[in-house]
Amino acid sequence: MALREHALRRQVVGEMHLRRWPALAAPALVVHMLRLVDEADRAAEQAALSGGGAVLAPSDNPRHRQGTIAGLPFVWEAHSEAIGITLFVDLATTGTAVIGPGGDCPALALALAWATDFPGEVLRAARIAVVRDGAERLLPQLELAPDDLVSCWMGDGTAGWARLWADFRIGPDGFGHMLMEAGTMAPGDLARLVQRLQELGNYRNLALLGLPIAQGAWKELGRIEQALCALADEVARPDVTDDQLLDRVSTLSLDLMAISAGGAFRMNATSAYARLAEERLADLDPQPIAGYPSLQDFTQRRLLPAVRTCSAHAARTADLSARADRFAALLRTRIETRIENQNARLLESMEQSASLQLRLQQLVEGLSVVALSYYAIGLLGYVLKAAEAVEPRIEAPLWIGGAVPVTVLALWWGLHRMKRRVLGHH
Fold first, then answer.
1. Phi and psi angles of residue 179, each rounded to the nearest 5 degrees, phi first
2. From CA 284, how far away is CA 190, in angstroms rounded?
3. Does 114 have pLDDT greater than 80?
4. Which residue, of 116, 215, 235, 261, has the fewest CB within 10 Å?
């Protein structure tokens, strides 16, 4: 029967089996490298994975591959921004007695040369030597720093206990070195324990990538905070205009946006990786040993302050951005209020000017009526005087005097009627 599957079904199911490791039998050496890669390096990464004599096992998950290189098993894992390569050396089979730097067998040397050719930059490289018992006799081979030596028991007790020794420093060969005594722990349980230990180290280093960014931006955030305080004091100064204040606060907002855009992803990633590291630490359940700091002590003393610094950086950036936005909003409100008041004064001035123009217009209209009446009566006077010369009974001054009010009223009415025709309801 054919099933109509969802397009992402097999990818989702594959995620559940993405991080499996082969069973690990002591004595063994686990060599792990974590590299940061860009999207442009993904194609070269796949070419390096299938080259160099590596034999890949069939897999339907492109993010998790297993195989052998120079006869040694390996696991390759792809993460969102990194890749992990883990090599497994059975010390009993290879006959290698030295577990520290300089004791690699020829097969491991070839495998390391192959793993070194992968693209990207190494963020973490670690070697874990796993033995059944007698681990303390092998400590001199690792040359661990006594002052930084961490040792503790790990495991839940049901599958057995394992003891860890590490100084979490980078050795002369570029690798960190750890020693684990597995006792009677079964190979499958041992593999899961070592895998969680490696994941704890990976997530810890990935989380710490945000610390230099937070520390580098702290001084710049202090400068911006002082500038915002200075702007608040300059608001009351009459010699500083609103345009100057708005221009300066806009510049500070752009600086904050640049800081936030440059570090927002890394701060969020730091928080996520820190939570994963805490989960892996809880899975390992380290138990302290008298005279040594435990893995939990080391992690909490180193990782938690860095994570809190990154959280403080993100919170401070968000707070300063909000303060700058509020300051800019207040300035814009003040500028808009002043513009509205200025517009109100301008409208009032225009209203007064229009009223004055209307009065002047009315005065001009009145003078125009008088002037036209004067000329009209003057013309009428000439006519009446000529008529009086012809007919003495016509008294021209009397007719002229009676025509004055009639002429004035007629001209006033005619002008107003003409104005109503031209202006209409206005």
1. -125, 135
2. 11
3. yes
4. 261
